[in-house]
Amino acid sequence: MKKIVVTAAAVVLPLVFAGPAVSEPTPVEPGPPATVLAEPAATGPLGTAYPIRTGGDMTVTVHPSEAEVAPRAADGSVLVFDVSAEQTAGKPYFLPTLDLRLITTNGDMVYPLTGVPGEYPGGFVEPEQPRSGLVAFELTGEQQPKEIVFATNDDFVQGAWTL
Description:
Signal peptide: 1-23
CATH architecture: Sandwich
Strand content: 35-45%
Shape: globular
Helix content: 10-25%
Keywords: Signal
Structural class: mainly beta
Protein name: DUF4352 domain-containing protein
Organism: Nocardia flavorosea
């Protein structure tokens, strides 16, 4: 009797749990175009305060700065901005860096320089305690600045300051 049960199980179980011998690939549906994914961001001149949502509600403002930073490349020029951020609601939030990028007229995305004297300090942003510092971007000879954006990733822009 035991042999019959084991034999039956050996024959029936593979049939029950077996999938098709060859599965056909599932067609992949194309995603929406990138322009549909990107939500329109608030845009305005330098000095405009924008509400930013990253770990809580914040306000970020970018102003021109008279500070000078030496270029690191032979053909480079550096643009320096004074940036302030304030947590307007919620608990203190650790913000290691501000997610600012400079967009050029030909669409290049330039990330901020690091190690700049007076740069925006990372750390906890406390409610009602604004924090400010410098953010600097280096452009090569042929690049022209268009705007500064706050983007938590390259496709999610929450505010833009026109230059």
